[in-house]
Specification:
Protein name: DUF4065 domain-containing protein
Helix content: 40-55%
Pfam families: SocA_Panacea
Number of strands: 5
Domain Antitoxin SocA-like Panacea: 23-115
Largest sheet: 3 strands, antiparallel
Strand order of the largest sheet: 3-2-5
Number of domains: 1
Shape: globular
Organism: Candidatus Eisenbergiella merdavium
Structural class: mainly alpha
Length: 144
C-alpha cells in the first residue's frame, strides 16, 4: 500500500512547489475521494482535526517549519509506489482542487462534516489532535 509521502511526492511532481497547507489539504482530499470511490484507503496514515483543517501528523513532521515545499523537501516516498488507477484518481482531485488557494481549501474543509464532527464543540482556532476517522470520511464523501 502507498503511504502519504508517496501521494505528497506525486502531487508535488504534478503541481510543483506549494504551501504546506495546500499540500496537506490535497493529500486529505485524495484520501477522502479514494475512500468514497473505492471504499479503500489510499494510505494508512490518519488525518487529525487541527485548527487549520485536516493535517496528517507524519507529513507535518517532514515539512514542519517550512511554508513552501517542493519534491526535494519530502525525503520519504516515491510516486512509483502508486498504481496507475491511484494516480488517475489523484489527477481528478488535482483537476478539481489543485488550483484552489490554500485558504479556500482550509475553509472548504472547515465546512465539511468529517473535520467538524471530529472537533466537536471546540471553538475555532483551538488545538485538537482528534483523528478524523476514515469511516467518517468515506461515508461523508461517498454521500455527495
Amino acid at each position: 500500500m502507498a503511504n502519504v509521502f508517496d501521494v505528497a511526492k506525486y502531487i508535488l511532481e504534478k503541481k510543483g512547489s506549494m504551501s504546506t497547507w495546500k499540500l496537506q489539504k490535497l493529500c486529505y482530499y485524495s484520501q477522502a475521494w479514494e475512500l468514497a470511490w473505492t471504499e479503500s484507503p489510499l494510505f494508512d496514515e490518519d488525518f487529525q482535526a487541527w485548527a487549520n483543517g485536516p493535517v496528517c501528523p507524519e507529513l507535518f513532521r517532514v515539512h514542519q517549519g517550512k511554508f513552501i515545499v517542493g519534491t526535494d523537501d519530502i525525503s520519504y516516498g516515491s510516486s512509483d509506489n502508486l498504481t496507475l488507477d491511484q494516480k488517475q484518481d489523484i489527477d481528478i482531485i488535482l483537476k478539481d482542487y489543485g488550483d484552489m488557494e490554500p485558504f479556500d481549501l482550509r475553509e472548504l474543509s472547515h465546512s465539511e462534516d468529517p473535520w467538524r464532527n471530529a472537533r466537536g464543540s471546540l471553538p475555532e482556532g483551538v488545538k485538537c489532535q482528534t483523528v478524523i476517522k476514515k469511516a467518517d470520511i468515506g461515508e461523508y464523501y461517498g454521500s455527495l
